[in-house]
Amino acid sequence: MGKEHHPTGKSRRGGDDLWDLVPSTVHLRDVTLRDGLQSESIVLDLGDKVSLARVMIDAGIREMEVTAFVHPEKVPAMADAERLCRELPMRSSVIYSALVFNAKGLDRALETGVDQIAVFVSASDAQSRSNTGKGTAESLAEAQGVLTRAAKEDIKIRTGVISAFGCRLEGRISPARVSDLVRALHETGSEEMTLADTSGTADPHQILERVASCRSILGGTRLSLHLHDATGWALANLTTALQLGVDTFDVTLGGLGGCPFVPEAAGNLAIHRVVRFLGAMGIDTGIDLGGLQEGLSRLERMVGRRLSPGDSP
Of 43, 73, 113, 114, which has the fewest Cβ atoms less than 10 A away? Predict the structure, then answer.
């Protein structure tokens, strides 16, 4: 655990400027099957999910967050978590991860043999209670127990902070609270830390402030961002993070998704938009836009509506 991860970028302009740390390669983790589907009124068939995963892998995706081991009555879209993990195409080059909140969820994840678990704690006490029925302090204690157990198993571990930039239920979230959670989760040992803008209200100044603070705690441990786009600022926030050397971001097909326990939590960064945006800056993602178009078209048929209109590859 605690594997070092360093930004891969070098100066793109040859000068000592804001672009010196921008990575030459960016890793995009697709979270369509988990975050993208969790708020949908239509529950996709297992076969549809598996076929969508195959298309995304063929397009070049190498990391996928595919489900959450939560109570099916709270999130019906995740009711097939065990079956999905067992039916996904086995590729040595692909890492499948699943969200876990408690000991029962960990037991379920371990039984499936999923590659990685993601254990998150909300910096918003109100959002935490809405999501899990427990406040931040209780959720952190539970997460630490899960992580202690998971560290003894043959499974990769990613940790993260939900509502790291603010909360529509609680309002402002202090940077100190986020730093305290990052430090507590990091001490349990994990390969990556994710900061999630769950409400989609982050601004570039917050990105600068909290990424810098996390870097001082994490050292060389991989840092990633999960950005929602309620304000339309997600690409600006991504650009700021790039300038700080962040090279891993969560995305979904068509920008689908949002937290079902936070009002007006708009969708995620749309993967095709991000791939084209990064490509315009000469940043490689290894992802094929044609393959993404096939995936987007399939997903639109599955959910019965147009996604990210006017912005297809």
Answer: 73
The catalytic site residues sit at 259
CA dist 108 → 102, 129, 179, 197 (Å):
10, 23, 30, 27
3-state secondary structure of 59: coil
Give per-residue pLDDT as tens, 131-176: 788 999 999 999 999 999 999 998 999 999 999 998 877 778 999 9
First-last CA distance in the chain: 38
274 token code pair = 């991000």
- Asked which of 72-86, 226-240, 247-261 is least confident by mean pLDDT, the reply is 247-261
CB 124 within 8 A of CB 170: yes
Q: What is the reported pTM? A: 0.91
> How far apart (Å, rounded) are the C-alpha atoms in residues 71 and 255?
25
What is d(CA 86, CA 84) in angstroms, rounded to the nearest whole number? 5
Residue 154 burial (CB count, 10 A): 7
The residues facing 194 across adjacent strands are: 160, 224
Which residues are paired to 192 by β-bridges? 158, 222
Query: Which has the closest alpha carbon to 210: 169, 167, 240?
Result: 240
Identify the architecture of domain 27-303 in CATH.
Alpha-Beta Barrel (3.20)
DSSP labels for 149-172?
A: HHTTSS-EEEEEEETBTBBTTTB-
126: its two tokens: 């109100």
Pairing of strands 222-227, 156-162: unpaired
